[in-house]
TrEMBL record:
Domain of life per record: Bacteria
Compositional bias segments (type: Basic and acidic residues): 1-23
GO molecular function: hydrolase activity
Domain Dienelactone hydrolase: from-to ranges: 36-237
Annotated region (Disordered), positions in chain: 1-25
Lineage: Bacteria, Bacillati, Actinomycetota, Actinomycetes, Mycobacteriales
The protein's name in its UniProt record: Carboxymethylenebutenolidase
Pfam families: DLH
Length: 241
């Protein structure tokens, strides 16, 4: 693999009508972390995350994605300010995502071969991106805000899911208090009304992230992480063509 490095993606010029745009200001530059595969890239995956630094387990997972042939681009969603959760939503989210897509296109990736992957509230953001952008596939892990929106800049997922434009996979723990089982079932039904492929997977006994094993030694099945990661890889393999 060609390694991990940092770069900047240029945001699209929003024009003077944008409420945050200063006169004569240059387009924003979005800090990104990039992981590239060896040789030819099959496509690109934009990874939305909530931390300023990657946990070792997440970095190893992203390296595994790159090892499968994807260019992985992870924007710093908090480059405008500090890390309040609502900053991953609204116009800033779409501006940063579009900047990452343009960066990938500049390296020869076609938009149909761009996917988005998000964890926790960034997983919520990933679903919302998939309702508004013509991408190839989306995956959300433990995405909250199902019945009620997380912020005024977000939409409740049960309302957003029928508008999905890209194949979407949602992974949930059946015992996660942040995403009650009944709400996840409602999301499954809502996503089934979308005019694209959708799949919601719940893991019995899991209290939170399916991609992170060992969160609760008494209830979390160690095979869950393997299954979840396999499903993520397979989803992108199937739909980013």
């Amino acid at each position: 693999m060609s390694g991990v490095y940092r770069d900047h993606a240029s945001a699209r010029d929003t024009g003077p009508e944008h409420p945050d745009r200063q006169p004569d200001a240059a387009p924003a530059r979005v800090p990104i972390t990039v992981l590239e595969p060896d040789g030819f890239a099959r496509g690109g995956i934009v990874v939305l995350h909530e931390s300023h630094e990657f946990a070792e387990a997440l970095l190893e997972f992203l390296k595994s994605l790159a090892g499968e042939g994807w260019i992985v681009v992870a924007p710093n969603l908090f480059h405008r300010s500090g890390p309040p959760a609502d900053k991953v939503f609204g116009a800033d989210l779409f501006a940063d995502f579009d900047a990452c897509v343009d960066w990938l296109v500049g390296r020869g990736v076609i938009p149909d071969c761009v996917g988005v992957l998000g964890f926790d509230s960034a997983g919520t953001a990933a679903l919302l991106v998939a309702t508004d952008r013509p991408i190839g596939a989306a995956v959300s892990v433990a995405a909250p805000g199902i019945a009620e929106p997380l912020t005024t800049q977000a939409t409740a997922l049960v309302r957003a899911a029928p508008r999905l434009r890209a194949p979407w996979l949602g992974l949930y723990g059946a015992s996660d208090a942040a995403t009650p089982f009944g709400e996840v079932e409602s999301l499954r039904e809502a996503a089934a009304r979308a005019a694209t492929a959708t799949l919601v997977v719940t893991y019995p006994g899991l209290h939170h992230r399916a991609d992170e094993p060992g969160l609760d030694a008494h209830t979390d099945d160690p095979h869950t992480a393997v299954d979840a990661r396999t499903r993520i890889f397979d989803w992108f393999d199937c739909h980013l063509r």
